[in-house]
Amino acid sequence: MLAFLRKQKYLIDYTLASLLRRKGKNVGLLTVYTLIVFMLASVMLFAHGLRHEAGLVLQSTPEIIVQRMQAGRHAMIPAEYLQRIGRMRGVTKKEGRLWGYYYDSAVKANYTVMTGGQTDAVLSEIAIGSGIARVRGLAIGDYLTLRSQSGDAFSFKITAVLDTESELVSADLLLMAPGAFRHVFGTEEGLYTDLVLSVRNPREVSKVAEKLAKLLPDTRLITREEILRTYDAVFSWRQGVVFILLVGAVLAFVIFAWDKASGLSAEERREIGVLKAIGWETADIMRMKFWEGAIISLTAFLIGYVAAYVHVFFASASLFEPVLKGWSVLYPRFRLTPSVDGLQAATLFFFSVLPYIVATIVPIWRTSITDPDAVMR
Amino acid sequence: MRKSNVFLVSLFLLLLGFVITLVDAGVRQHQAASKHESGIALVRQFGLTDLALFTEARYTRHLSQADFHSAFQDHPMAFEHFPTGSLVPPPLRMR
């Protein structure tokens, strides 16, 4: 056993010396290889982290949302729809919600205005998300002026800035009293943006939704399960889109690596010939080449993967921010909770390390079974 | 120091780094329970449905509330023109 290990160490010594003889070429290959693994692993970890975070945070989203549609557009829903729903088996709570969007032309950003449903909230007070506080430079005690539907300006005192820990869902939130909402947006009493229903037993949700669809044909229903599935699909899709964008780079690398690994240069052929002539066996040459492939691909995988982990979970995936941001002025500052999917990491390993090792060994095997004299000529 | 020793030590350190990422993920996930509490509480209290990742248009801000029309309803024959729109698919129930 010890002799075997010693032999492998000598082989590694020889392989490293041989790699260092062509330093420029091999360092270039290692750099490109590492970058490719880094990009793929970053996308994979980021998408998985976001999917995990969305699934966790949105777990307590409403079971059923009822929205009224008119001519293919969302319309305000009258409060009497709550009476029309009446008492329905399995529904534990039903209420109207008021929410909407406010475009702030000062910073060209969209805010999401929400009301908590509490009737005793002070009309002139609001709470804002930390994204808004950052963009507008506001703090507790400052005033924020909103222009109402009728053109009048309303000043609200900021009584709270929402926790930065919850920024992923609250960066652009503006929470106000229902009365203030009706003033600013000119929403009449008796109208709501939509209705939310709580259903105790998750297995009854689809049945309740089915009954509601019959009872209120001008509405559409959104269930919690659909919301969660939508987010799951969104990040898989994004991951897919980025992977497609990377396909060009990956293919270029595959051609480069294949050419480097499988096309033996005259110099390498001669080297094999010399080794065979001085008594190396075919198996030794194959082992040496295995180490060559393993040294490059394992190093590239490990450096690329660890760097991607640091990039995504410690540097907040800063390289992806421009892509995710789009035209959004308000962008949440969030640090994802690390979540590694073992299967994905294993897939990345098998697709990045194994092909390279195989690509290095096969042509060597072909060369090393031929006569040294023929190879050296 | 022999080249093979340098390589094996480096490989060991890199492997250690890899294992540390797995351990770190486990530990931080455990600690994150309290970090998520405020977000979960907000979601429950206000019935929030979406992440504030793409705030540029309302159908990307509230992706799960969007429908096929919302991306095109600025005017008749309107095109969907927000960058995020090209990267996010319509909600699942629409497909």
Topology of helices and strands:
The complex is a heterodimer of chains A (377) and B (95).
Chain A lengths: L1 H20 L1 H35 L6 E7 L2 E3 L1 E2 L1 H6 L5 E7 L1 E6 L4 E7 L9 E4 L1 H7 L6 E5 L5 E9 L5 H4 L2 E4 L1 H8 L5 E2 L1 E6 L5 H11 L3 E5 H39 L3 H12 L4 H32 L7 H5 L16 H11 L1 H15 L3 H5 L1
Parallel strand pairs in A: 6-10, 7-9
Antiparallel strand pairs in A: 1-2, 1-12, 1-13, 3-11, 4-12, 5-6, 7-10, 8-9
Chain B lengths: L2 H44 L11 H4 L34
List keywords for this structure.
heterodimer; A: 377 residues; alpha+beta; Barwin-like endoglucanases; 2 domains; six-stranded mixed sheet; five-stranded antiparallel sheet; 14 helices; 13 strands; 18% strand; elongated; B: 95 residues; mainly alpha; 2 helices; 51% helix; 0% strand
Q: Average the pLDDT over all residues of chain A and give the rounded result.
A: 86
* Topology order of chain B in helix (H) and strand (E) letters: HH
Chain pair sharing the greatest interface: A-B, 79 and 62 residues
Question: What's the overall geometry of chain B?
Answer: elongated
Structural class of chain A: alpha+beta
Output the structural class of chain B: mainly alpha
Q: Beta-strand level of the residues of chain A, as a percent range?
A: 15-25%
Low-confidence stretches of chain B: none
Descriptive overview:
The complex is a heterodimer of chains A (377) and B (95). Chain A contains 14 helices and 13 strands. Chain A is of the alpha+beta class and 377 residues long. A six-stranded mixed β-sheet of chain A has the order 5-6-10-7-9-8. In chain A, strands 1, 2, 4, 12 and 13 form a five-stranded antiparallel β-sheet that branches. Chain A has a two-stranded antiparallel ribbon with strand order 3-11. The longest helix of chain A is centred in the middle third of the chain and has 39 residues, at 224-262. The model of chain A has no long low-confidence stretch (mean pLDDT 86). Helix content of chain B is 51%, strand content 0%. Chain B has two domains: 1-48; 49-95, no CATH class. Chain B contains two helices and no strands. Classes of the chains: A alpha+beta (377), B mainly alpha (95). Chains A and B meet through helix 1, helix 2, strand 1, strand 6 and helix 5 of A and helix 1 and helix 2 of B.
